[in-house]
Amino acid sequence: MRSYEMTFLLRLQGTDDEFKQVVDQVVAWIEQDEKGKVEKIDPNSLGRRRLAYQIDKQREGHYILMEANVEPDHLDELELNLKLSSEVLRHLIIRSDGSDA
């Protein structure tokens, strides 16, 4: 497994429970079939922010920062799930161990 830093921009939800469900769903995608493990979730690192431009008619979003260990062959499936989710406006996944590729 490799170490990754993942940042997600989530659509603002109506309640805290709905927001937590979206975060739990993302964690479930990462940990699916034991191909990944979330090490740290920092939901307040950036929090709710006004966007520089509208994304899907949203002027604000909630940023979530996660650190996880994931099998490299699982990233394609994870990215597909994130792209298909209507609740995730944008995402960025980068390796955090400092090595190339």
Q: What report would you give on this structure?
A:
The chain has a single domain, classed as Alpha-Beta Plaits, CATH 3.30.70. The protein contains 2 helices and 4 strands, in the order E-H-E-E-H-E. It has helices at residues 16-30, 75-84, and strands at residues 2-10, 36-55, 58-70, 88-95. It has a 4-stranded antiparallel beta sheet with strand order 2-3-1-4, with helices on one face. A hairpin with a 2-residue loop joins strand 2 and strand 3. The model has no long low-confidence stretch (mean pLDDT 86).
The fraction of residues assigned to DSSP E strands is over 45%
CATH top level assignment: Alpha Beta
How many strand units? 4
Note the overall shape.
globular
Topology:
Elements (H helix, E strand, L loop, with lengths): L1 E9 L5 H15 L5 E20 L2 E13 L4 H10 L3 E8 L6
Antiparallel strand pairs: 1-3, 1-4, 2-3
In short, what is this structure?
The chain contains two helices and four strands. The protein is α+β, with helices and mostly antiparallel strands.
Which tags fit this structure?
2 helices, alpha+beta, globular, 4 strands, four-stranded antiparallel β-sheet, 101 residues, Alpha-Beta Plaits
